[in-house]
Design a protein that fits this description.
Elements: H1 2-12, H2 14-36, H3 41-48, H4 52-59, H5 67-76, E1 81-82, E2 94-95
Parallel strand pairs: 1-2
Helix pairs in contact: 1-2, 3-4, 3-5
């Protein structure tokens, strides 16, 4: 998969590819936490006050969630949303690596 990102970086630029990778990591963390809690997408959507289609699109990587949406999801998952530029150290927080 590394070759793909390298070639795509040549076309779209490193910053764009890093953004896509970051969004994918966030989506994966949301889905993993939701599944750990044995929540359906509908249950998460109801708890967060957002449409189920939004949860599905975020988890599928089809949309980039707004900060407000991420905060609602974080609260619904009872998981802190932390932006501090470090990798998750196993604390189960949602981290954004810059």
């Amino acid at each position: 998969m590394g070759d793909f990102f390298e070639k795509y970086s040549e076309i779209r630029g490193d910053d764009y590819v890093k953004k896509l990778q970051l969004e994918g990591e966030i989506a994966a963390q949301i889905k993993t936490k939701r599944q750990e809690l044995k929540m359906s997408q509908q249950k998460l959507a109801n708890a967060a006050g957002i449409p189920k289609s939004t949860v599905g699109r975020i988890e599928a990587g089809l949309t980039s969630p707004q900060l407000e949406t991420l905060l609602k999801i974080s609260k619904a998952l009872e998981t802190p949303f932390v932006i501090d530029g470090t990798l998750d150290n196993g604390s189960n927080n949602l981290y954004i690596q810059t």
